[in-house]
């Protein structure tokens, strides 16, 4: 049984705009899944189906093997938490602490449990010092962390992040990568995220779906996707910097193993240096 699954999912907006066409998607427990593609590919529309914000025109969405219904919608939204690209769409309370508490409070939890969840979420995102601040006075990166904390306080099993690096500085991106990489092993969460930053994908994802014009045009591991430059070119994406550099060195006659992450590249360069010494 998959945690999240779509079967031949289609969605049409007003004006007969086909946003999704026959999408088949699967997310397993404790996985890290990247959904990449150009603007307008359908990534955000797909994500909004995962917890019933949008309804399919045809096909179905299954959460833990069960279709989303009016009767289980509340439970689905506890199980699948979505953080939107624009944090201002999710932050509306007078203070950060109240905003993070909003979700668990509306789950009907008692005050002690809500307070505990808020503390845990603030600590995990490193925003304890912001608890009494007005959210709309925060920086873009701070708002992003508060929005994620608000979802985590509901203790979802699936965390969906729509363009989570948008508006973040390099340190904010590095912090986000470290945070996401902790979630599967330490908290048993599945993370599904979209991004235009292909260099980020190899550092975070176990599996990749490539979308274009409302369809999934390819899926596979990091290696399987990023060894297909023709696919990336067709979908207006680029090969990440690290494999691009190593491929260039290989073509120049340097005996170096392919790598996709910073740590992998470091090992490849050290191994190549050792062989030459």
UniProtKB/TrEMBL annotation:
Entry's Gene Ontology molecular function annotations: ATP binding
Localization in the cell: Cell membrane
Pfam families in the cross-refs: ABC_tran
SUPFAM superfamilies: P-loop containing nucleoside triphosphate hydrolases (SSF52540)
Matches recorded under InterPro entries: AAA+_ATPase (IPR003593), ABC_transporter-like_ATP-bd (IPR003439), ABC_transporter-like_CS (IPR017871), ABC_transpr_CbiO/EcfA_su (IPR015856), Co_trans_ATP-bd (IPR005876), ECF_ABC_transporter_ATP-bd (IPR050095), P-loop_NTPase (IPR027417)
UniProt membrane topology term: Peripheral membrane protein
Chief place of localization: membrane
Alphabetized SMART domains for the sequence: AAA
Alphabetically ordered keywords of this record: ATP-binding, Cell membrane, Membrane, Nucleotide-binding, Translocase, Transport
Residues covered by the ABC transporter domain: 4-238
Family: Belongs to the ABC transporter superfamily.
Described function: Probably part of an ABC transporter complex. Responsible for energy coupling to the transport system. Part of an ABC transporter complex. Responsible for energy coupling to the transport system.
Protein name: ABC transporter ATP-binding protein
Organism: Methanoculleus caldifontis
Lineage: Archaea, Methanobacteriati, Methanobacteriota, Stenosarchaea group, Methanomicrobia
């Amino acid at each position: 049984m998959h945690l999240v699954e779509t079967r031949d999912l289609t969605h049409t907006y007003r004006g007969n705009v086909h946003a999704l066409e026959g999408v088949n998607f699967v997310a397993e427990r404790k996985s890290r899944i990247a959904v990449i593609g150009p603007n307008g590919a359908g990534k955000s529309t797909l994500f909004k189906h995962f917890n019933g914000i949008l309804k399919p025109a045809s096909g179905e969405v299954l959460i833990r093997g069960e279709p989303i219904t009016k009767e289980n919608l509340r439970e689905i939204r506890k199980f699948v938490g979505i953080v939107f690209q624009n944090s201002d769409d999710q932050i509306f309370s007078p203070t950060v602490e109240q905003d993070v508490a909003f979700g668990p409070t509306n789950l009907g939890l008692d005050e002690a449990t809500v307070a505990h969840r808020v503390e845990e979420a603030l600590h995990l995102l490193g925003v304890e010092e912001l608890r009494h601040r007005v959210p709309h006075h925060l920086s873009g990166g701070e708002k992003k962390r508060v929005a994620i904390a608000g979802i985590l306080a509901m203790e979802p099993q699936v965390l969906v992040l729509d363009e989570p690096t948008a508006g973040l500085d390099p340190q904010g991106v590095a912090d986000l990568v470290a945070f996401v990489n902790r979630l599967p092993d330490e908290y048993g969460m599945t993370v599904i995220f979209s991004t235009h930053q292909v260099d980020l994908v190899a550092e975070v994802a176990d599996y990749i779906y490539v979308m274009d014009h409302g369809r999934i045009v390819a899926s596979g591991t990091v290696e399987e996707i990023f060894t297909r430059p023709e696919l990336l070119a067709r979908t207006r994406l680029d090969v990440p910097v690290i494999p691009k550099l190593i491929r260039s060195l290989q073509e120049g006659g340097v005996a170096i193993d392919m790598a996709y992450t910073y740590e992998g590249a470091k090992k490849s360069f050290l191994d190549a240096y050792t062989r030459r010494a």
